[in-house]
Amino acid sequence: MHRMTRFILRRLLHMVPVLFGVTVVVFVTIKLIPGSPIAGLLGPGSTPATRAELINRLGLNKPIPIQYFDWLRSTLEGNFGTSISFQSSAGTLVFNAFRNTMILAGAALILALVGGFVLGAIGALWPKGMAGRVTSAISTFSLAIPQYSAGLLLIVLFSVDHTWLPSGGMHSVTGSTGFADLLRHLVLPALAAGLAPIGVVARMFRAALLDVMGQEFVQSMRARGLRRTTIIRHAIHNTLPALLTITGLQIGYLLSGVVFIETIFSWPGLGQLVYGAISARDLPLIQAGVLISAVAVVLVNVIVDVAHGFIDPRVRQ
Amino acid sequence: MSEATTAYDMAAEVHVTSGQPERRSWHLSRVRALPPGVLIGGGIVSILVIVAIAAPLIAPDDPQAGSLLTRLQGVGTSGHLLGTDGQGRDVLSRLIWGARPSLIAGIVPVAIAGVIGTALGAIAGFGGSRLRTLLMRSLDVLYAFPAILLAIAIGATLGPGLTNVIVSLSVILIPPIARIAESEALRIRSLDFMDAARTSGAGWIRIGLRQVLPNIAPPVIVYCTALVGLAIVYAAGLSFLGLGIVPPQPDWGGTLNDLRNNLFTQPWLSLVPAAAIFIASAAFNILGDGLRELLDVRADRAK
Fold first, then answer.
1. Other CB atoms closer than 10 Å to residue A242's CB: what's the count?
2. For residue B287, which residues of chain A lie inside 8 Å, CB to CB?
3. Which residue in chain A is spatially nearest to B160 when comparing CA positions?
4. Residues forming a β-bridge with B77
5. How many Å apart are CA B66 and CA A273, to the nearest integer?
6. Could you tell me the pLDDT band of residue B203, with boundaries at 50, 70 and 90?
7. Interface contact A260-B241, CB threshold 8 A
8. Other CB atoms closer than 10 Å to residue B247's CB: what's the count?
9. Is the CB of B277 less than 8 angstroms away from the CB of A149?
10. CA nearest B102: which of B221, B261, B237?
11. Residue A175 φ/ψ, nearest 5 degrees
């Protein structure tokens, strides 16, 4: 366990320079946005005196590196600034939206893992058969379907002519707003978001399982006359590290790609919040949104690495 | 590839053919022997490129001229084969003209990121461990941002338009390409033929062009081909969000967004531009799979 603790600490230390770089990129990108935030805050009719006062109060007359460290310090204290368009804490807004995004991305991830696992296993265990060919075709094509197209297709199929499933929002405006209602609103967006990852997971899991099935320990189990189901169980156990890598990659992809899904299905998540913040020139909100999602991706990568260490002792070296 | 059995063979090969595989003569039987993915994917890609180039000749209508009398005609209307949009503009003509910016926004960023990413990856792979750590950690920073969110942030900073779409997509595509190039460079840096080339006195420019590039190119090309499919989807997505091609100039993502507004009056019409994006993206994916088979790249290397 001592070695494991050291491994975890080392991974956490590796995270620090990356996170530092992330804050620099976010800060610089926001600084590059054309147009003065002062003019936007005060409107066109402001006097030079009030402008100078606001510039002074916001610290915008200080050198850029000082502004960066001021911003970094208050961010580390958990203060993400005040959203200009909502006039409330940017941090609270982002965290609430992020929770909704996690619900959507989590549901899509479950779909992708279960669907991809089944398709990939069929493809790897019967590579020459009809089932294997069909599943590999499905996984190739599901990759090419953009999430926004999948979303529109699902709305056309399930919400236009019939009202089987709701085409937008997270809860019904009237009536029940319980868990069942949330699930009903979740079906279409989660399917649309999970479609492409199903293909990716299927392809990668298929490759991993084929690789394991060709290794010597599988041959030796076969030679000892073990049942096929037993062999497959051992083989799947050995694809766990690969599955973990795949899962980590998909979480990153889903956190990014749900922007489209959230726009189409009016899902009140982070993508929609940041998109709205950009059209409203709400700089603190953009900063907080992009920063928090990047930090989430970095954390997910660390968790995946640590889980690797738990599963496979060789990784800990 | 030029991976001969002994260092001696390698040195000989370096002198005689400079590590390049022997060029075989062009013959029809070689076309038939191509993997089906190359033929099918390459065929569809060629057709799309020809359509984009020949847009003025084959588009039946002016893509920007609408008529409020012929709004929202369905698919199969006489005179408007794929219907008309909310402003009465011919959807088929908008798709044909839209192929130009949509394909450019898919191909050009991958080409730019391919050159920069390969160069960075090769430098990281062959440089000292400090340089490698510095370069790859810097790219890790870009990698940490969810790709689309970063593209949206850059797009919002620069403003909409084809050039800015190309810039923002190039930025988000550099890190994954650099990773592939770096792992390939690390793989070949200690192989015998590199020593042979160094011993025979070749300079680093010559080694880079004659030994490194031909050896790390195949996996990078395979990966980049599939990335074009993704870039087309991303570029159309940025237009869909209003951060891409500026309307009324036609492009696939923008057309999709136009027709989305009429989803409940003409539901199937909005699937027409979606199908164009799907076909183009799938064609590049199929071509990438075919090239992987043709160039014998292991699947797990270019995920």
1. 17
2. none
3. A279
4. B80
5. 34
6. confident
7. yes
8. 15
9. yes
10. B237
11. 75, -150
pLDDT digits (tens, 9 = 90+) for A231-263: 888 888 888 888 888 888 888 888 877 888 888
CA dist B87 and B259 (Å) reads: 10
DSSP code, position B21 = P
Partner residues linked to A82 by β-bridges = A89
Is the Cβ pair A271, B149 closer than 8 Å?
yes
- Categorize the per-residue pLDDT at A110 as very low, low, confident or very high, splitting at 50, 70 and 90: very high
Residue B131 has which token pair?
């340089």
Q: DSSP assignment, residue A315?
A: G
Chain B partners of A301 at a C-beta cutoff of 8 Å? 144
Answer whether B246's CB lies under 8 Å from B161's CB.
yes
Locate B288 and state its tokens.
């990438």
Is residue B281 within 8 A of residue B230, CB to CB? The reply is yes
Contact call for residues A112 and A198 (beta carbons, < 8 A) = yes
Contact status, residue B236 vs residue B256, Cβ threshold 8 Å: yes
CB contacts, 8 Å: B241 with chain A: 259-260, 263, 275
- Give the C-alpha distances (Å, rounded to integers) separating A58 from A35, A66, A93: 16, 12, 21
- The length of chain B in residues reads 303
Burial (0-12, 13-18, 19+ Cβ within 10 Å), A301:
buried
Token digits for B114?
């391919």
B51 in Cβ contact with B61 (< 8 Å): no
Mapped onto helix, strand or coil, the DSSP state of residue B153 is helix
Is this prediction's ipTM beyond 0.85?
A: no
DSSP letters, B54-84, are THHHH-SS-TT---GGGTT--TTBTTBTT-B
The token pair that represents A63 in the structure block: 């050198």
**Region of residue A79 (phi > 0: left; psi between -120 and 50: alpha; otherwise: beta):** beta
The whole-number pLDDT of residue B12 equals 37
- The one-letter amino acid code at A98 reads F
Burial label for A295, CB within 10 Å (0-12, 13-18, 19+), is middle
Tell me which range, A28-32, B205-209, B282-286, is most confidently predicted by mean pLDDT.
Answer: B282-286
Q: Could you tell me which residues come within 8 angstroms of residue A226 by beta carbon, excluding any fewer than 6 positions away? A: none
Q: How far apart are CA B241 and CA B230, in angstroms?
A: 16
| A162 CB neighbour count, 10 Å cutoff | 8
Q: In 10 A of CB A37, how many CB atoms?
A: 18
CB pair distance less than 8 Å for A140 and B138? no
Q: Where are the alpha helices (DSSP H) in chain B?
A: 7-17, 28-32, 36-53, 55-58, 91-126, 129-144, 147-158, 162-189, 192-199, 204-207, 213-240, 252-260, 271-295
Residue appearing with tokens 């929770």? A99
- Distance between CA B28 and CA B31 in Å, rounded? 5
**Residues in chain A, how many?**
317
C-alpha B261/C-alpha B269 separation (Å) is: 11
In chain B, whose CA is at the least distance from the CA of A297?
B144
How far apart CA B190 and CA B78 sit, in angstroms, is 66
What's the rounded Cα separation, in Å, for the pair B72 and A60? 51
Name every residue whose Cβ is closer than 8 Å to that of residue A285 and which is 6 or more positions away in sequence. A83, A84, A85, A86, A90, A93, A94, A273, A274, A277
